[in-house]
Write a structure and sequence with these properties.
Chain lengths: ~220, ~450
């Protein structure tokens, strides 16, 4: 097996496996930690319906940032919506329900949002004071992945990204020849997914604990 | 130049408050790491602490909620910046990524200068938890401040008045104001006389009554500073025909351990619970005191001895509210005609969820009521929270920085009376009113309630 074949045909499975393992480990680890001191923060939204309403609103509007930190909200909201949009439109594209354009538009939005946030962190006095190498690295890493994906998803003669991804999903990844830039995008995207659960960006898991298991834990 | 630098290196800076006995400078780093390790191993704060230390996104949303930062605009007052003083040490010494990648992942070896910054920073935070309300990731900087203070306490850094009061309290039969038992009993007798004069009927203040339902413990400073609050509470218990008592062995609810020492918190809490057990009372009722209520409610399960776990702890606000709901209080709001506003003590509001109980009591007891803006979960701290009100060295800071937002808020209500059911808030608000020359008076909730209570003269 050549290096290219490994990256195109094996690495994506390793990536997904490690991502799921990392995320699972984080979840189980935090679940196993007891909250001896009930550090509830009042008011607690009423009942499960109230809590769900709060979370859905927060996840889909980023209301807390919108109210108090509008400049960062512009970037962060766009970034997360772009990631959501990317996944959604990719599924629609794979199912032949959507052209490739919205997928690429999501990647563009993602890249622009990331550049904007990096710029903001460098130029806003307070954000600059708070930001360490780690914050810039996380943003830049994702920006590089987005840029590489944009380059890789540009029309490449006869190549169909759909055929490649469908091949992966049906466990028949071989038979597809990826170009160098496409291999790079797969490789970087994979690295990012492996890194994600171990980084501070793991808040897709942590929010459940900080809200439901701590803030909203009634005595 | 370099000689001057060498001479000054290693010397303590001028701290904002005096501590009794800080460790020698060269011993601090090692002790800090040992104490932090001990806290992490003890596991009391497991989940919240690990979440808060690992997941802050540094979005700085907290700064817009922080009244200290709003007053100073100083980077050092950004809550996330302050928390990072501890977070980076934790990451460096207690996480694999921090050990491996160091500064690349925001980890840093702690230095003596970092500890100086902690002494400054963790005592510029009122631990009000307002910044947590709108944190997108629900990170609570107040817990990090608290852990930071506990570590600093172990290094000998805590305001002198605070540690001195705790020492006095932990002596046999001691209390933070060093009131001897005999003098305390005299004070209760005096209060009974006042009650008789005011209500026109004899209202006893029961003491050491075995088997009473409620053991009542106020912050002892109330016996010196807030007689009207205690009179109001005695009237309320009496009007509700409740079975209650005061214990004369341990009568001080104050628990400054909450602000700097888990060890002290545990001792003080258990002394109070022991008094409830001695008198066979089922419920310990904490008077108008935010931090004492929170210390009891939050820490009984982890620090209360196993034999005291069946003792219920309640705030006087909950108890009086229950009496009101049960129709056991006859109130005449005409006795309180002035415009009244209510200050939510952070430890009773954000810390214990007691938002509606005091409001319902007030609305039944006063003619005119106005809310502050913002209110409830977003209300501003008095500016002396987190025990800062005890540190006399920080008086100017409390008046000019910590309490500035509160002053604006109070002024905007145009109220004549601000009600605050917390001893620390009362002290701070009274000083703010005086310092900023506000046309307003301060009262406890039971001062107002007691005034409105109606008694039958000839039962």
């Amino acid at each position: 097996m050549t290096g290219s074949e490994f990256i195109a045909g094996v690495f994506p499975y390793i990536t997904i496996g490690l991502f799921l393992l990392g995320t699972g480990w984080r979840f189980v680890r935090w679940l196993s930690l007891p909250a001896h001191v009930k550090w509830t923060l009042y008011p607690v939204p009423e009942g499960i319906a109230g809590q769900l309403r709060y979370m859905i609103k927060e996840i889909f509007t980023f209301e807390t940032l919108y109210r108090f930190n509008r400049r960062l909200w512009i970037g962060t909201f766009s970034l997360h919506m772009a990631m959501g949009g990317f996944v959604l439109f990719l599924i629609l594209y794979l199912a032949h329900w959507s052209p490739a354009f919205p997928v690429r538009a999501s990647l563009w939005l993602l890249l622009i949002s990331l550049i904007y946030i990096i710029w903001l962190r460098m130029n806003d006095r307070n954000l600059r004071a708070l930001s360490t190498f780690e914050e810039y690295f996380n943003l830049a890493f994702l920006a590089v992945v987005a840029a590489a994906s944009l380059i890789a998803s540009a029309p490449h003669g006869l190549f169909s990204p759909r055929a490649y991804i469908i091949g992966l999903l049906t466990f028949r990844p071989d038979g597809v020849q990826l170009t160098g830039d496409q291999l790079l995008a797969v490789f970087l995207g994979g690295l990012f997914l492996i890194y994600l659960p171990w980084s501070k960006m793991v808040h897709y898991v942590s929010k459940y604990f900080t809200y439901h298991m701590i803030n909203w834990q009634k005595h | 130049m370099s000689e001057i630098k060498d001479e000054t290196r290693g010397a303590d800076p001028k701290y904002a408050f005096r501590s009794e006995a800080p460790l020698p400078r060269e011993e601090r780093v090692a002790r800090l790491l040992k104490t932090l390790e001990g806290i992490l191993k003890a596991g009391i704060y497991d989940l919240p602490l690990e979440m808060y230390l690992n997941t802050c996104a540094k979005c700085n949303n907290c700064a817009e909620q922080c009244q200290v930062y709003q007053a100073t605009g100083d980077v050092r007052d950004l809550p996330a910046w302050r928390s990072n003083l501890l977070r980076r040490v934790y990451r460096k010494h207690f996480t694999p990524s921090g050990k491996l990648f160091g500064r690349l992942v925001g980890a840093k070896e702690v230095t003596e200068e970092d500890i100086d910054a902690m002494v400054d920073g963790f005592y510029r935070c009122t631990m009000c938890r307002r910044c947590a309300v709108n944190c997108p990731l629900a990170v609570d900087n107040a817990l990090i401040t608290r852990i930071g203070r506990v570590i600093l306490g172990d290094l000998g850094f805590a305001p002198k008045n605070m540690t001195g009061s705790v020492k006095t309290q932990l002596l046999d039969g001691g209390n933070t104001s060093a009131i001897p038992k005999a003098a305390f009993i005299d004070t209760l007798d005096f209060l009974e006389e006042e009650l008789q004069d005011e209500a026109g009927v004899p209202i006893p203040i029961p003491r050491d009554v075995e088997g009473a339902e409620f053991l009542f413990a106020a912050p002892v400073s109330d016996y010196i500073m807030e007689a009207d609050t205690l009179i109001g509470i005695a009237k309320t218990f009496h009007a509700a025909k409740a079975s209650w008592t005061i214990g004369t062995e341990n009568f001080d609810a104050i628990n400054y351990g909450l602000f700097y020492s888990d060890e002290k918190l545990e001792k003080i809490l258990n002394r109070l619970l022991a008094e409830a057990r001695r008198l066979k009372c089922k419920t310990l009722v904490i008077g108008e005191c935010g931090h004492a209520t929170k210390a009891g409610l939050l820490f009984q399960k982890v620090y209360g001895r196993s034999e005291y776990q069946d003792i219920k702890i309640k705030s006087i606000l909950e108890v009086s509210h229950r009496f009101l709901k049960e129709g056991r209080l006859r109130l005449d709001p005409a006795k309180n005609p002035d415009l009244v506003t209510y200050h939510d003590p952070c430890n009773l509001g954000r810390g214990a969820g007691l938002y509606e109980e005091p409001r319902e009591l007030l609305r039944a007891a006063v003619m005119n009521y106005i809310e502050m803006t913002p209110t409830r979960g977003m209300n501003y701290c008095c500016g002396g929270g987190g025990g800062l009100v005890i540190a006399e060295d920080l008086h100017t800071w409390r008046m000019e920085v910590g309490g500035l937002k509160k002053v604006e808020q109070l002024r905007a209500t145009k109220a004549k009376i601000v009600v605050a059911p917390c001893a620390n808030c009362k002290k701070q608000l009274r000083e703010l009113i005086q310092f900023h020359k506000l046309d307003m008076e301060l009262a406890g909730l039971h001062d107002v309630l007691g005034k409105a209570l109606v008694f039958e003269k000839n039962p």
